[in-house]
Amino acid sequence: MSIRQARRRIRRVLRWGAAIWMLMLLAAAWPGAQPPEPEGRPLVYTTEVEALIHPVSAEYIGQALDAADRAGADLIVLILRTPGGLVDSTREINTRIIEAETPVVVYVGPSGTRAASAGFLITIAADVAVMAPGTHIGAAHPVSGTGSGMDETAAEKAASDVAAYARSIASQRQRNVELAEKAVTESLSFTEREALEAEPPLIDLIAADLDDLLNQIDGREVRRWDGSLEVIRTADAEIEAVEMTWRQRLLSAIAHPQIAVLLFSLGSLGLTIELWNPGAAVPGIVGAVCLLLAFFAFQILPINYVGLLLILFGMVLLVIEMFTPTYGLLAASGIASMLFGAVMLFDSPAPELQLGWPFILFTVLVLGLGTGALARLGVKAHQIRAVTGADGMIRQEGLAIDPIPAGGRGRVSTRGEIWTAATAPGEDIAGGERVQVVAVQGMVLTVRRAAPPSEEGSES
Questions:
Q1: What angle in degrees, to the nearest 10, is found between the helix axes of 87-99 and 55-71?
Q2: What torsion, rounded to 10 degrees, do the Cα atoms 85, 87, 91, 93 define?
Q3: Structure confidence by residue, pLDDT tens digits, 130-153
Q4: CATH number at residue 205
């Protein structure tokens, strides 16, 4: 083989090698040609709400949904048990569930709990609604935000609005529209069996616990709000719990009837102490903070403001009793007013929103005794004779250093000090005689002869 032929073969081999190399690069770059990467464990986020549905609950649930979306989770499970809550917060939560990229499961559990009122609307809005054995949902009829009864027209409008909202959600989720409406208009409640066996059903599954739920839902095809279908993988899933922040835990704890009443009581006592003892600072600051927190809770809870005003009126009556004694009549009226106010403060059928009689009696008793004791101390403080300044000199006794003629002036010694003094009209005082201060005018004392010491009870 000649050198020229060898060079030709080398160039041919190089050209074929370059072509093959380019084809390999194109094959590697082609999306369909890449080998599938091994898939990891499914990721499931969980969040738990055991409280009233209010702005703090809505913020917490929205935070959990955002975290699941950012992490690319396969599923988020909202474990729900609640007596109800605010309609506005419920709508906000449902909007976040509808807009979430991650499929959402609402699980009413564990056994023996419920998701009533607002909880019912959240349950039927989920991609997958699940209940534990022995639970129930429903009773979503709206009540006044103040806890008091609404007139017939307002009640009808509110019920119609919420019923339309329930029908809209149930229809889009392909759940039982008729039962969803009756849960609002007729306050119907449903056990887990009744909800599942309805036609069409209100819920999708019954699960004993979270593990049972994940086992049943693995491989299930879920229809999202926009109608798209998505297959859920939960086998051997990694579970990530989303907890409340410390701020959310604090605000959620405050939004409890008993805590709100205690904060209101402490705040009222703190401001009362500050008003009777200006400059103490600490009682005023603590009282103001407690009242602000209490009023935050009152904005969330269904408060009857007539009850709140009765409590305030009762405290005012206790204070008036201290200044104008009426032989206990005003004090008894004040305690009765506070008692009726505490009973009326939370007017709700939910046991979680009612104050028990032991708590009411104990709180009213402590608040009444505390307010009465502070008022009595304030009255006594005003009755104590001054011991400093010009007022503190009145009725002080001293010794005349010089003779003080009527209408004239001399010197007296009192309280370790020497003062210029004048006598009362028509009275002469000899030097060394005991005197008593009756008035102070600038730096001059007006004195009179001191009464001789009583000899009553002396031995003869």
A1: 10
A2: -10
A3: 999 999 999 887 765 444 445 577
A4: 3.90.226.10
